Each structure stands twice: as C-alpha cells, then as structure tokens.
Amino acid sequence: QVQLVESGGGLVQPGGSLRLSCAASGPIFGINAMGWYRQAPGKQRELVADITRGGTTNYADSVKGRFTISRDNAKNTVYLQLNSLKPEDTAVYYCNAEVLWTTWDGYWGQGTQVTVSS
C-alpha cells in the first residue's frame, strides 16, 4: 500500500517560516509529479505548488516569491519551504503524488495544519 506522510506543520507568527516534508513509502516503482495543496476552512482545496520529476516547478500566484518546493527523488520526498507567512496562509496542507504501483495513480497524504497567527 502506497502512503504519503506529511510533517512539519505548526503554529507560527506572521512573517515566520516553516518547512513541510512529505515522504512516500510502500511498493513504489516510480513517481512523476509531486505537489502541495491547501484547504482553508470553508474554502475549496487549491494547488500551492508542484514539481516534476525533473525539477520543473509551478506556483500559485499567492505564494510566488515566498514558498519554495523541492524534492529528493532518492528519498521519494517532497518539501515545501514557507517563508514570510501571512494569516491567509492558514490551512491544512496536503501532499499529492502521482505514483506507479500496479498502475499510475494519484495519492494524498493525511494533511498537516499550518496556522499563522500572532
């Protein structure tokens, strides 16, 4: 069974930083795109950033210049560095990955809470 496990969320003051990690484990034969999404209370889940296996990145306009996505293919892990955090960044952050097991499928992590508040 393929699993994605996130870590690194928490409470931080405005202007602060956090680093999220998401590790994929299980019978993995390949991983294509990996990404981070977030869902704030009462809002739809939205893409924050994603990254191809080759390292091409894509960001939501609201986080450009503040967040950085990266990955370690050897560790099947994707990271999200969150800098200059704002209260509106408060949300549950979910990891997503396109993984080859028996077929190519999308998998989600359980989510990690990021709260930006003074």
Structural account:
The chain is mainly beta and 118 residues long. It is 0% helix and 57% strand. The protein has no helices and eleven strands. The strands form two sheets. Strands 2, 4, 5, 6, 9, 10 and 11 form a seven-stranded mixed β-sheet that branches. The model has no long low-confidence stretch (mean pLDDT 96).
Brief summary of the model shown:
It contains no helices and eleven strands. It has 118 residues and is mainly β.
Main sheet makeup: 7 strands, mixed
Specify the helix fraction band. under 10%
Portion in strands: over 45%
Strand and helix order: EEEEEEEEEEE
Cα-atom Rg, whole angstroms?
Answer: 14 Å
3D shape? globular
Instruction: Quote the average pLDDT.
Output: 96
Query: Pairing-aware structural class of the strands and helices?
Result: mainly beta
Topology, number of strands: 11
Number of helices: 0
Separation, N- and C-terminal Cα atoms: 40 Å
* Unreliable spans: none
Layout: helices, strands, pairs:
Layout: E1 3-7, E2 10-12, E3 18-25, E4 30-39, E5 46-51, E6 57-59, E7 67-72, E8 77-82, E9 91-100, E10 104-108, E11 112-116
Features:
0% helix, single chain, four-stranded antiparallel sheet, 11 strands, mainly beta, seven-stranded mixed sheet, 118 residues
